[in-house]
Design brief:
Blueprint lengths: L3 H6 L2 H9 L25 E4 L5 H10 L4 E3 L8 E7 L10 H10 L3 E12 L5 H4 L1 H21 L5 E7 L6 H12 L9 E5 L19 E5 L4 H12 L3 E6 L4 H10 L3 E4 L7 H13 L2 E6 L14 H24 L3 E10 L3 H4 L5 H21 L5 E7 L5 H4 L3 H9 L9 H12 L10 E4 L8
Parallel strand pairs: 1-2, 1-3, 3-4, 4-5, 5-6, 7-8, 7-10, 8-9, 10-11, 11-12, 12-13
Helix pairs in contact: 3-7, 8-16, 10-11, 11-13
This protein binds nicotinamide-adenine-dinucleotide (NAD).
Nicotinamide-adenine-dinucleotide binds next to helix 8 and helix 14.
Length: about 450
């Protein structure tokens, strides 16, 4: 069932009814339609606070995106579409006051669906180098940004933190992440931390649009839901997509594949022999693969005391064992090409646990640990491994939930609503792009800043 309050809350007669009943109507989120756009800052009001990053790096990025920034604050009557705060120069508790000054002046003047990005430093591997107060000041920014995210969510606005290793960050490292975070593709991404690892190789600024031309991508569980949306988004950026799903879902899978000029591959990920089947297919038809999206997943919810052993085994096998088995074989066979991208579907249940989901949450937490370790193994070949953890997303999987659990799932996010399969697909597509080379071993949530596990 669709979100009744969101659907009717913006219709003229209904809005006042909800107001009288004291029900908050969720904001309407502006989402990306079609493929990535280039000049996304054209005509937008961008306000920035400069810090230790070379100001020309940021101004060149605004230029590239078709905009320019005003320093510190807007005229009283204006609304800001983008706020960017460079916090990399903050080293003391006293200097945190600059956050107060900037956001106190600007947070009340945001346009609907505004984007806020704060850039800070990744904790130092040897904290004594920077000193304890400096580490504390940088970490404070994390709590600050997550709190602002909760305060401005009702406007459909988002806040994300980008952490860089040092202030000498380059345009080519920062550009793709800022492009994504300023864009409509990140509508349901808020209160997240994107760490940019400077060892990820990006030869030059890589625009996001059409960046997957010539790439081969395989998406498991792509006959419907998040997998289908991902297959469509990857194809929209130029990739040739193999839609994989179970043999019994062939009809739906073929329809998706045909509509995006892709291929359909019937394989049941729960079967051990599927890894070999996938490997042989990719080698024979495409001589390898660039992008591998492990999306197929199932739930079999029961409390641990009442759970059948077969439901434990089934969920562990499909959600975790199958993807490790498949990656092991594809990597051993050299099927995943250099500069490849692996994205696995985790869940916010993997962070916080969930009633009746011991099996599911174990697999989704397992994925968080898996990509972290795999990323290090694959870094030499410039292959990245990341995970995306959706919050409450409106798909067939969540449609099965009891009504009140569903309503709760929607209202617990900062944006006061559930996400769409396309929101998750946009993040997966971004992580699959060449420009995301600096993001590796991370699990990023697409949850609207859901309180659960935050
Ligand atoms: P869905 O049930 O709508 O779709 C899952 C797809 O996977 C289906 O097409 C199904 O046929 C396929 N699949 C299942 N078992 C398979 C197998 N053994 N072999 C091949 N394909 C198989 O699910 P969804 O909501 O789109 O979720 C996709 C992924 O996102 C899952 O991993 C899920 O755990 C994760 N996730 C979803 C949500 C959400 O709110 N929907 C939240 C967190 C995480």
């Amino acid at each position: 069932m669709a979100d009744f309050i969101l659907e009717y809350g913006h219709k003229p007669g209904w809005k006042s009814v909800f107001n009288v009943l004291g029900i908050t109507v969720p904001p309407r989120l502006k989402r990306l339609k079609g493929s990535w756009k280039k000049q996304i800052l054209a005509g937008k009001k961008v306000v920035t606070a400069t810090g230790a990053i070379n100001a020309s790096v940021l101004s060149n990025i605004y230029d590239e995106l078709g905009g320019h920034a005003i320093i510190n604050s807007l005229p009283a009557e204006d609304r800001a579409d983008v706020l960017l705060f460079d916090a990399t120069g903050i080293e003391t508790v006293a200097q945190l006051k600059s956050l107060y000054d900037f956001f106190h002046a600007n947070a009340g003047k945001l346009a609907n669906n505004a984007r806020i990005v704060i850039i800070s430093l990744t904790p130092s591997p040897s904290p004594r180098e920077r000193g304890a107060e400096s580490e504390a000041a940088q970490q404070a920014i994390d709590g600050f940004s997550r709190s602002v995210a909760k305060e401005i969510g009702r406007k459909g606005a988002t806040v994300n933190l980008v952490r860089i290793e040092n202030k000498n960050v380059t345009e080519k490292q920062l550009f793709p992440v800022l492009h994504f975070l300023f864009s409509e593709a990140s509508a349901f991404v808020t209160a997240q931390v994107f760490r940019i690892n400077s060892s990820g190789t990006i030869p030059q600024i890589v625009p996001l649009e059409n960046s997957l031309a010539g790439k081969i991508a395989l998406v498991t569980g792509a006959a419907r839901g998040i997998g289908e949306a991902t297959a469509r988004k990857l194809a929209a950026e130029g990739a040739t997509v193999i839609v994989l799903d179970r043999p019994e879902d062939s009809e739906a899978g073929k329809k998706v594949a045909d509509s995006i000029n892709g291929k359909f591959l019937a394989a049941d990920m729960s079967k051990e022999e599927s890894a070999q089947l996938i490997n042989d297919y990719l080698k024979k038809e495409f001589n390898g693969v660039d992008i591998l999206i492990h999306n197929a997943g199932i739930t079999r919810d029961k409390t641990i005391a009442k759970m059948d052993e077969k439901y434990w085994d089934m969920v562990l096998n499909v959600n975790l064992q199958a993807l490790i088995r498949t990656n092991n074989l594809l990597l051993k066979s050299g099927t995943i090409r250099n500069n490849g991208r692996i994205v696995c579907l985790s869940s916010i249940s993997g962070f916080s646990g969930n009633f009746g989901q011991t099996n599911y949450a174990a697999t989704k937490a397992g994925i968080i640990g898996y990509v972290k370790a795999l990323a290090e193994e694959l870094a030499a070949n410039n292959i990245t491994a990341n995970a995306v953890a959706p919050g409450f997303i409106e798909t067939k999987m969540t449609a099965k939930m009891p009504l009140f659990t569903k309503m709760g799932g929607r209202r617990l996010s900062n944006l006061n609503q559930g996400g769409l399969a396309e929101d998750v697909a946009d993040m997966i597509t971004f992580l699959s792009s060449p420009g995301a080379a600096g993001i590796n071993g991370q699990t990023l949530r697409v949850c609207g800043g859901s309180y659960i596990g935050a």
